[in-house]
């Protein structure tokens, strides 16, 4: 119980998994007993990155309070995105690049957030500040996280700092980021082994927006029609989810990783708010969102504002 | 309106005022148009520090939303401690050393919190990270903040980092910290020009603890009896405040800066919870809290826990 657990959000993506591994490594280097763990299944993209750089998947935990007294959060802070039992443990540190909400502590803590594209970009900076050398395989993980979160630098969340960090890490890891990055993104966009239930939960995050409860799920695809051809079945599943979780809005985003657009499907009693949010008509519950690829920078702020009105 | 305003909490203390001035200075050095402002009257201790190092008091603002679009918070994050209108402006950055609570943004931001004794200790670190020279008078302000928040290194909130920073800043500022520090604390503990209303509001902070609304006010004194001799009148004023603000608890802490103990006065319908919080009987609504000098590290966590039960 003295060990500190390091983890990212539920429905883990590549930044969440690799940042947990990398930050636990950094903590181990400075003498803290820290273990990276995960809150859900590893997706195909992350699996590709872990295999490439020779890492096992972190251990899955169910309820954090039976596992540890102290925890470090990476890549998230909102408690509904975090581990079960999070309110019974002490959060000693947070490294994140998202808005802050639904987060509260009893005691002071280390909190490091920067408005960059990827948690790994901040962790790379911390390695330097502490003068700790970045091994090649750790660099590979951080590079994978940046590629994933910025869609190979195409997302509007991508900052100059992310690009500079990726170029450094590319050298250390000994890979070509364009080649490796596209292969990794394609591995993640391969949805052939996924059920429709999987597509709705793989990268789903819940948000409190004012008084409303919203889930925004996102998948990457090489061809969005592979997913949207099954809209009728998707709507059935989403409608059930809305009832079970008493959601006001379920917003499903299918992102075209080659053209950097998304198709959105909006359901729930606040679905019409999506029209105002993106200034586009939704026909048959769907719309093409030109140039929209980022949940954090494009979808969440637009919906937050529209729902506040 | 393009200017970014930098400010600390309501009922400003020395760390809040000087950190706003110092961080605005740092931002100006890196080319940002930033102005330090304040949300309330300057106390005697802060006045002593500003005069010693040749600074004017920052401009008082009433409602931040009529003054700026973007703001930087120092030394606080909880919205009930912040400026009126805070919800209508964008918080682009926070530098703080408190717990995080009642804080929410729509967008990602810079957030730098560390569990150290004083905001100035973190800002001193940022000057170094950015390679910006600390002028002697700016060093004097940061030193004053550390002395104030750590009660000249006697508070349990004081960390090794605060002491190291103070020793560096002492050199740059060209003062003897023990001598200057005690003079500054005594200037702050001189309550002769204060009304009882002043004592209750000078350094009062409101906290949400679970469902309860709590105000914790603190004053420093050389002789606590100067204050407690007027308990009957204090209780009248506090009882009125409890009614007006619908408080569950008003906790008034008079800290003896020479012996490093405090006398507490607890009123409100949850006043009895203070006995459990500090494991001491309250007689006639008051108790001596041996070794208690820190609201943040000793009073807030103890009351938070007791009120949660």
Automatic annotation (TrEMBL), chains A, B:
| Keywords assigned by UniProt, alphabetized | Cytoplasm, Hydrolase, Manganese, Metal-binding
Reactions listed under catalytic activity: diphosphate + H2O = 2 phosphate + H(+)
Cofactor(s) needed by this chain: Mn(2+)
Question: Which terms in the Gene Ontology molecular function aspect does this entry carry?
Answer: inorganic diphosphate phosphatase activity; manganese ion binding
Quote the Gene3D superfamilies the UniProt record gives: DHHA2 domain, inorganic pyrophosphatase (n-terminal core)
EC category name: hydrolase
| Domain DHHA2 residue range list | 181-307
Q: What Enzyme Commission number(s) appear in the record?
A: 3.6.1.1
InterPro entries the record matches:
DDH_dom, DHH_sf, DHHA2, DHHA2_dom_sf, Mn-dep_inorganic_PyrPase
Please name the Pfam families in this protein's record: DHH (PF01368), DHHA2 (PF02833)
One GO CC term, this protein: cytoplasm
Free-text cofactor note:
Binds 2 manganese ions per subunit.
Coarse class of the primary localization is: cytoplasm
Q: Which residues bind Mn(2+) 2?
A: 15, 75, 97, 149
List the subcellular locations. Answer: Cytoplasm
Q: Which HAMAP family match?
A: PPase_C
* PANTHER family with a match to the protein in the record: BNIP - RELATED, MANGANESE-DEPENDENT INORGANIC PYROPHOSPHATASE-RELATED
Q: Which family is annotated?
A: Belongs to the PPase class C family.
Q: What is this protein called?
A: Probable manganese-dependent inorganic pyrophosphatase
* Source lineage: Bacteria, Bacillati, Bacillota, Bacilli, Bacillales
